[in-house]
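Readers of this paper often ask what the protein records in our data store actually look like. Such a record has a labelled line for the sequence and another for the backbone structure tokens. The tokens are whole numbers drawn from a learned vocabulary of local backbone shapes. We quote a single record here, exactly as it is kept in our systems:
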Amino acid sequence: MVTTQARNTEPASTQSQLETFWQGVTHAKLAVGFGKELAYGYICHPKAKQAVVISNGRVESYLKYRELIHDFYQQGYSVYALDHMGQGLSSRLTANPHQGHIDKFQDYVDHLHCFVEQVVVANQYEQYFLVGHSMGGAIGTLYLQQFPQRFTAAAFSAPMYGIRLPMPRNFVRWLAGKLNSYGPHTEPNYVLSGHDYRPLEFKDNQLTHSESRYQALLDLCRQHPEIQLGSPTNQWLIEALDACEQTITAARESKVPILILQAEQDTIVDNQAQIAALGPKVTLEKIMGAR
């Protein structure tokens, strides 16, 4: 099912409200082997029977999601949010901390499973809901395929079921393979024209029409330089392109209800791939004018 509508997305909460609320959020890390740790934050609602897990997008940190975490909490949910490996406050996988890298895309899914089972489920809620953005939506979709009994339903904003590329997908994957330097004794390298973190002016950004939210993101990266992340590595791109193809089938055949929030003006993920992922359990809502 597909629906279309426009929405006002300007912040409803004041900065002082969020600052006060954020003081009640617990910040911790979870060891996932080989000396690596996943950073996460959570807040338990005293009356909650339901929990929301947030799986964020590439280059993001859960620190960016405090407004959403606040809003879910106000609705009576306990909320748990993690930073995926290699980004945010979690351990880096490369000598250059600005490189977005993963050995295998499945590692993201395994780490999410570890987080859910060791941290979230420990508090024994009646229902669990999964929320994901972009890459986090792709990770979440594969999670639902592999562990369909854990979550009652999921909502993904601009899920990365495909990536908008300047050239045909097969050629890009071939080129990334040719350029990929990653090996047992060599460090990963950036994709073609890749670079360290560079903040863009609002007029040049492709993420949002909300100048206030974009400025808040720049401020967050300035206040916490350890979360800054640049372009992906060739290894990440290869893994991501392969994972995207898997997510389309995973969503289409999902046993768990999925809501896709599609941004009409998205120039980063492929909206056609989201349409291809429609299945009996998938509802797509297009947000007009949204990036």
Summary: Helices lie at 15-22, 66-74, 105-120, 135-146, 169-179, 211-223, 234-252, 271-276. The first strand starts at residue 2 and ends at 5. The chain has eight helices and nine strands. The chain has a mean pLDDT of 96.
